[in-house]
From TrEMBL, chain B:
Coiled coil: none annotated. It comes from Streptomyces formicae. CDD domains: PBP2_TbpA (cd13545). This is Thiamin ABC transporter, substrate-binding component. The lineage of its organism: Bacteria, Bacillati, Actinomycetota, Actinomycetes, Kitasatosporales. It comes from the Bacteria. GO terms for cellular component: outer membrane-bounded periplasmic space. GO terms for molecular function: thiamine binding; thiamine pyrophosphate binding. SUPFAM superfamilies: Periplasmic binding protein-like II (SSF53850). Keywords: Signal.
Amino acid sequence: MDLARTEVTEATGEKERPLKGRPLKGRSRGGAARLGLMAVPVAFFALFFAYPVTAIVSRGLHVDGAWRFGRITEVLGQSDIRHVLWFTTWQALASTALTLLVALPGAYVFARFDFPGKQVLRAVVTVPFVLPTVVVGTAFLALLGRGGLLDELWGVRLDTTVWAILLAHVFFNYAVVVRTVGGLWSQLDPRQEEAARMLGASRFRAWRTVTLPALGPAVAAAALMVFLFTFTSFGVVQILGGPAYSTLEVEIYRQTAQLLDLPTAAVLTIVQFAAVGLILAVHAWTVRRRESALKLVDASAVARRPRGAGQWTLLGLVMATVAVLILLPLGVLIQRSFDGPDGFGFAYYKELTSAEGGAFLVPPIEAVWNSLQYAVVATAIAVVIGGLAAAALTRRAGRLVRGFDALLMLPLGVSAVTVGFGFLITLDKPPLDLRSSWILVPLAQALVGVPFVVRTMLPVLRAVDGRLREAAAVLGASPLRAWREVDLPMVRRALLIAAGFAFAVSLGEFGATVFIARPDNPTLPVAVARLLGRAGDLNYGQAMALSTILMVVCAVSLLLLERIRTDRTTGEF
Amino acid sequence: MSTTKKVTFTAVAVGIGLVALSACGSSDSGSGTSDSKSVTLVSHDSFNVSKDVLKAFEKRSGYKVNVLKDGDAGAAVNKAILSKDNPQGDVFFGVDNTLLSRALDNGLFQSYEAKGSEKIKPEFRVDQDKHRVTPVDSGDICVNYDKKYFEEKKLAPPKSFDDLAEPRYKDLLVTENAATSSPGLGFLLGTAAAYGDGGWEGYWKKLKANGVKVVDGWEQAYNEEFSGSAGGKKAKGDRPLVVSYASSPPVEVLYAKPQPKQAPTGVATGTCFRQVEYAGLLGNAKNEKGGKALLDFLAGKEFQEDMPLNMFVNPVREGTKLPELFTEHGVTVDKPETLAPKKIADNRESWIKSWTSLVLK
């Protein structure tokens, strides 16, 4: 996630590395080593991503032994499909703009100010990012729908309007901006801006000419990530938008799962794939574009107590935004989970331990245990795959490798239903007959976790001074030993953070899991969705209680990450 | 060993480890394999059976039953069709009359006449020459109403499709998107059956003018918008009429603590569309024998009696006793609307398309 940082540390890191002086032999050996490191991630993505997705797409376009590319223009010619494309694009643009507008002040406040509860709050604003959309949709409906807070205060209802979608998108992606931009902001040396002020620049001019250019790539990177997430939005649009609104991702789901119109779904998947590829390409370009090597300082030395009325007001405004936009929806869920049949209490939570309900073959509370187990395995896979990929990418990258870098991000932008259906028709023969195996769930979750691991590890690995490794080698250490003695101590914390974030993302993953989770082992988000799918007070209440538990588990793991957040070279998450 | 080799070796070893891990996973689970001691039932999320009833069958037949719930009804059928060459299980349960033709046309099932099918009520039997499917349950998609609302307003709840278009019920009804939700589609098909090919669109124009609200799924309609359900009450739902099932009132009673004496909701019996669910032996079932035994079980007395309180649907077997909860709080729908699966198959897509542009745009 911390894309800006990647760019910056790469720039500084490279200067330190005496590349030109390296003997040729070392280089080719490095290249081979990189290939070795890349072999496993490449195999993983080929097998569990490229193969299933290609299979389901060609099932749609390859009919009776012939390719039907004519379908592409045919489908794109339909007015309702064009309407979907148009809506998908403009709502993503609007969501991105709104998110930047709301979150940039937040990024500044979290970067530059020190205030009590900051760590907890940083963790809390990240919770939405890893919450499943079923849960968020329910919370927002409770808030913006009929009888919600807005309705009660001013008689305003926003459900089934585009505003509900936009606000929920801000809720989801607030943390992306705060962490990506704020992470860098907190390490920019404020003395540079002060120097400009000293030389007579106005406050605004100093900010515009000194800070803004330095932040530019980070802002662009964050914006592109938000655009990517909102462009492929599924649950939010489905639940809050009502049937009149549909994004590409929703339409792919509808065409595949409901109508079994595979050709149309295949065309839409290709369109989305192309769009996501384009976004990632622009993103990679932004990340690579180096304005200047930035002088970074320790974040803790920069942040200080707000001073003066202006700064306190800003802090207050940001806190109010966070309270209304993030804490309130989360609070509604919690409130409903305790609002039991006989007044406030733990009635719904107690009910979770009984198997009587019939929504599952097991008491719903077991979903917590299942989720934790799946998430641990998914995290292990994501850390191995992502770690190897990051290690491969650390070495000076050629075009091919940079392409690989972007490739690792693709699972974030490809529809879960496509991956799920792809799994169904490809991983069905020995030796890879995995369809009914439990490992499928962690595999699907790891696909989403890997990009986060890579993003977290990469900047740290790149910042490790190559000379240290060389010194160790000169002193006779084997590469493995050099890695253990030099690299590992420096990346251990980043590794923990990467693992923690992959864990939280795996816990919340819903889209792909819902296709493959087994009924006797539902995950938390799947259990919530199932409970919401049944009539009756107890089922509804249990759904709220489970959502709250999921929220708390996510918050706790993120809070632990805050604790081990470390020096400046560490990736954000 | 050189560096390169070592790194490559490590990488390959990790890769092999992962594959081995995956392989273990698949052998652990054991479902869908050629193991003749187990039989796999593929179904949708709503499938449920009492533990002891299933255990009794397992003991009697000697098969261990794996249940694979595969998403909502539509998605489960589509997945089964996609994977029919190498199916995930032996028996599929949960294809209903709105999707039956799609399943049959795609050759999902093979012939087998379940033992005891002669006991199934004749009105549910289809495909009698080939016996590719066995009817298992039936349910009615009907408008439910919030009893309290109509009592307080001293207004009689609606009884028929015609009533729903009356001005006195303006802005009261919420239904589901017919394109994405099975009760939504059922309601559309109900109106198509009631008003015919030429009339249903006119009826929906009237409904739209009368303020019908359309939401995407049943969850939202029932748990958020409908004022009569427990969830809807909490969410301050303001629509006292919702498209749901004839069995929803008993569910409201069963899942309330303490259980009320009377269901808080009622059913408008003149607005019902009958849904019938079928099961069949999958074309390439690995355990055909076990699958046949499982089908006999689904059509048998024990399962038919157990089903109502687990899936909230009605048994199709003659003389099956309904649970008290159903007879007390449920309703019997005497004249539900029905449509032949063939008619549905022929018109489904075009009706959904016209409905979408008529009601949603």
